[in-house]
């Protein structure tokens, strides 16, 4: 049930806008309060009168309405809800969201909101598959936007494929799941590591790896959305900061370990960073010049952050989760790693060339626990993060 929950529904300009009338009715049947923003294009498909009649509230549409701005300005409108839902989320609307464009009331409210956002995409299959749309979806997912659909089927244009807006009952179920699970980790503290580490050879060069930080950042965002006070300790990465997360930026493995220790105690630690195993034993004070000889670089072993956190004594997190990036025989290699590190779970994934894991948006993982192995299907890194966060919440809810 949604008794007392407030939803701001942004209705985009697509033929699927008519489905929002049913969605509004069903949200209210379950006790939810619905306030609607209708884009100019959306008003070509559904009328403000029908939306207002079903929602029981006035409909907002004009950014420069003196009455609207006086009575319910776009800032208050964007923050008076518990959840913002965008349906249908057209390709144009997703592009404007991803690029921070605020040229009407809908996009201005979306840019100003401090509340979770859920989007139900709807567009032609070619538009959905276009690289620009997929990049926008990846950007929004990294920022914490939740997606419902799209479904596959016949479209209004006569083509067939992925791009149909999810049915109202599916969107309703996603909204109910959000409110049921959204605060499962309230009062808990979480630590997540992400990205690569850079181990300096000289002031210019360093040893590193190909980790993008996408998965670790997604995990931090997912834990925060479940209500955990989350700290993300990240190596150098181009990933945007997840909303609602405290971010600590570091360069080297030793800096990362120190930052993690400073965050303890926490309830859960997720070590998703691809920490360099070795570092140059000494960093050259000046850039090493090429003089015809190949320099010999002595290496020293870096601290093992996962093992250190798993052996932190009284400050050991209740749940310690590691990641194992392997190339081939993933599960066989990761199972002994869990025991050797002393952690509770290992999330193993294949980063071999051709998998697209490093730097990509999708992942195939295996969750290894003392109870066995869960083989998860290939899914987006955002979906992996949500599923892992839900499993973490389940574990922390169990008696200690």
Helix content, binned percent: 25-40%
In terms of DSSP E residues, the strand content is 15-25%
* Name of the CATH superfamily of the largest domain: CoaB-like
What can be said about the biggest beta sheet? 8 strands, mixed
The radius of gyration computed from the alpha-carbon positions, rounded to a whole number of angstroms, is 24 Å
Contiguous uncertain segments of 5+ residues? none
What structural keywords apply?
6-stranded parallel β-sheet, elongated, alpha/beta, Rossmann fold, single chain
Short recap of the structure:
The protein has 400 residues and is of the alpha/beta class.
Task: Indicate the topology.
Blueprint: E1 6-11, H1 19-29, E2 33-38, H2 48-55, E3 59-60, H3 66-72, H4 74-79, E4 83-89, H5 91-98, H6 105-112, E5 117-121, H7 125-129, H8 131-142, E6 146-147, E7 151-154, E8 160-164, H9 168-181, E9 189-194, E10 199-200, E11 206-207, H10 214-225, E12 229-234, E13 246-249, H11 253-263, E14 268-271, E15 278-280, E16 299-301, H12 305-310, E17 319-326, H13 330-341, E18 345-350, E19 362-363, E20 365-369, E21 372-375, E22 379-380, H14 381-397
Parallel strand pairs: 1-2, 1-4, 2-3, 4-5, 5-6, 9-12, 9-14, 12-13, 14-17, 17-18
Antiparallel strand pairs: 7-8, 10-11, 15-16, 18-20, 19-22, 20-21
Helix pairs in contact: 1-2, 1-9, 5-8, 10-14
């Amino acid at each position: 049930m949604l008794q007392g929950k407030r939803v701001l529904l942004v209705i985009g300009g697509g033929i699927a806008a008519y489905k929002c009338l049913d969605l509004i009715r069903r949200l209210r049947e379950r006790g939810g309060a619905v306030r609607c923003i209708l884009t100019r294009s959306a008003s070509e498909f559904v009328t403000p009168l029908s939306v207002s009649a079903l929602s029981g509230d006035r409909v907002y549409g004009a950014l420069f309405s003196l009455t609207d701005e006086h009575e319910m300005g776009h800032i208050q409108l964007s923050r008076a809800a518990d959840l913002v839902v965008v349906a249908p989320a057209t390709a144009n609307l997703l592009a404007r969201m991803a690029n921070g464009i605020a040229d009407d009331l809908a996009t201005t409210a979306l840019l100003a909101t401090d509340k979770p956002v859920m989007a139900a995409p709807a567009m032609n299959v070619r538009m959905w598959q276009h690289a620009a749309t997929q990049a926008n979806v990846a950007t929004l997912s990294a920022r914490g936007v939740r997606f419902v659909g799209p479904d596959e089927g016949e479209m209004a244009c006569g083509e067939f494929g992925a791009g149909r807006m999810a049915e109202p009952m599916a969107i309703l179920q996603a909204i109910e799941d959000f409110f049921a699970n959204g605060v499962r980790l309230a009062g808990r503290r979480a630590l997540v590591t992400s990205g690569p580490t850079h181990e300096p050879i000289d002031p210019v060069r360093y040893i590193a790896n190909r980790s993008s930080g996408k998965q670790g950042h997604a995990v931090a965002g997912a834990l925060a959305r479940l209500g955990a006070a989350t700290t993300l300790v990240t190596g150098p990465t181009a990933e945007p900061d997840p909303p609602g997360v405290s971010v600590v930026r570091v360069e080297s493995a030793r800096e990362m370990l120190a930052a993690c220790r400073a965050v303890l105690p926490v309830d859960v630690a997720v070590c998703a960073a691809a920490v360099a195993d070795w570092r140059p034993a000494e960093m050259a004070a000046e850039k090493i010049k090429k003089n015809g000889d190949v320099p010999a670089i002595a290496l020293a072993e870096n601290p093992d952050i996962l093992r250190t956190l798993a052996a932190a004594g009284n400050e050991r997190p209740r749940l310690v989760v590691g990641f194992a990036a392997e190339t081939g025989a993933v599960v066989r290699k990761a199972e002994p790693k869990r025991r050797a590190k002393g952690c509770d779970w290992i999330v193993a994934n294949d980063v071999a060339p051709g998998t697209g894991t490093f730097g990509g948006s999708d992942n195939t993982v295996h969750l290894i626990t003392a109870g066995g192995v869960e083989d998860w299907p290939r899914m987006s890194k955002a979906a992996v993060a949500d599923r892992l966060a839900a499993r973490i919440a389940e574990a922390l809810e169990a008696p200690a």
